[in-house]
């Protein structure tokens, strides 16, 4: 057999630029679904919703669990429930489409290929997101995969999951909650003041880094970077100019508004409690 007649075993690669952005709401929702799962269920699977950005990045913004039963050689999904949930979500946000599916556990499992085959009919090149709710490595490991075809000549033999880059985008308040969620055990959830204190500490650390960088550039220890300089300039220019008295008044007004809300909520709870007791007494009499 000549070299030109050799049959080559090859992978059909996914787009090299494919990556995914995951919003923290998706992770929190997956963890909540895992906590509320049926007692006999070992893991939770569900649908990922979002959109594909112009650069090819998959933007994952929402999710919902799908009831299922699985054994060693088969997986049964509640297709009607999946389609009903999709229709309900798209009534609220029609721009969100199916971009993949998720499962809890460390990496892919034996039934993942069967589930991925179903979602491949629902979306083009779906993303498989895994969330390690069992803290196998002491952390809530989050990974993303796509399916890569293994072919022999013109015949497709099997598929393989290939990991893709994940970008977990979150604001500081969401990061505090996620950091707490990643720990295997916590004494208690931080309150508002503790969360604000943690945010202020991180902000001060970042400001110290900026000060150090500027001093190093001014004293010639580092080469100047125009992009960083413009970014720092834009950041400083975006800070509103407030006097100390105006800033103090703004903070005090905000605190007073929150105290009023707490007072009104306390009155509402008291009235509901009294109404419930009066209704109970009336039924007894």
From TrEMBL:
Query: InterPro entries under this entry?
Result: eIF3f (IPR027531), EIF3F/CSN6-like_C (IPR024969), JAMM/MPN+_dom (IPR000555), MPN (IPR037518)
* Record keyword Protein biosynthesis present: yes
Task: List, alphabetically, the Gene3D superfamilies matched.
Answer: Cytidine Deaminase, domain 2
GO annotation, cellular component aspect? eukaryotic 43S preinitiation complex; eukaryotic 48S preinitiation complex; eukaryotic translation initiation factor 3 complex, eIF3m
Q: Which UniProt keywords apply?
A: Cytoplasm, Initiation factor, Protein biosynthesis
Keyword Protein biosynthesis tagged: yes
| Gene Ontology biological-process entries | embryo development ending in seed dormancy; formation of cytoplasmic translation initiation complex; pollen germination; response to sucrose
Instruction: Report the principal subcellular site.
Output: cytoplasm
- Any one Gene Ontology molecular-function term assigned to this protein's record: translation initiation factor activity
Q: What is known about its subunit structure?
A: Component of the eukaryotic translation initiation factor 3 (eIF-3) complex.
State the function annotated in the UniProt record: Component of the eukaryotic translation initiation factor 3 (eIF-3) complex, which is involved in protein synthesis of a specialized repertoire of mRNAs and, together with other initiation factors, stimulates binding of mRNA and methionyl-tRNAi to the 40S ribosome. The eIF-3 complex specifically targets and initiates translation of a subset of mRNAs involved in cell proliferation.
Q: Which PANTHER family match?
A: EUKARYOTIC TRANSLATION INITIATION FACTOR 3 SUBUNIT F (PTHR10540:SF6), EUKARYOTIC TRANSLATION INITIATION FACTOR 3 SUBUNIT F-RELATED (PTHR10540)
Q: Which HAMAP family match?
A: eIF3f
Q: Which family does it belong to?
A: Belongs to the eIF-3 subunit F family.
**What's the protein called, per UniProt?**
Eukaryotic translation initiation factor 3 subunit F
């Amino acid at each position: 057999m000549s070299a030109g007649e050799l049959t080559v075993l090859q992978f059909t690669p996914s787009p090299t630029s494919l990556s995914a952005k995951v919003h923290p709401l998706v992770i929190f929702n997956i963890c909540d679904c895992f906590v509320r799962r049926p007692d006999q269920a070992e893991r939770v699977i569900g649908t990922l919703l979002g959109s594909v950005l112009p650069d090819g990045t998959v933007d994952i913004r929402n999710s919902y669990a799908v009831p299922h039963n699985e054994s060693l050689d088969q997986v049964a999904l509640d297709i009607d429930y999946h389609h009903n949930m999709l229709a309900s979500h798209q009534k609220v946000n029609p721009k969100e489409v199916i971009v993949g599916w998720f499962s809890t556990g460390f990496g892919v499992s034996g039934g993942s290929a069967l589930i991925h085959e179903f979602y491949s009919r629902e979306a083009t090149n779906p993303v498989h997101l895994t969330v390690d709710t069992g803290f196998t490595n002491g952390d809530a490991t989050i990974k993303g995969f796509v399916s890569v075809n293994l072919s022999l000549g013109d015949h497709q033999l099997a598929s393989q999951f290939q990991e893709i880059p994940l970008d977990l985008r979150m604001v500081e308040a969401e990061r505090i909650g996620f950091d707490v969620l990643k720990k295997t055990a916590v004494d208690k959830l931080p309150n508002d003041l503790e969360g604000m204190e943690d945010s202020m500490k991180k902000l001060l650390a970042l400001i110290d880094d900026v000060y150090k960088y500027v001093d190093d550039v001014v004293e010639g220890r580092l080469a100047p970077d125009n992009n960083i300089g413009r970014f720092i300039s834009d950041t400083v220019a975006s800070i509103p100019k407030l006097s100390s008295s105006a800033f103090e008044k703004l903070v005090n007004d905000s605190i007073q508004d929150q105290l009023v809300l707490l007072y009104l909520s306390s009155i509402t709870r008291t009235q509901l409690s009294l109404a419930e007791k009066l209704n109970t007494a009336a039924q007894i009499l």
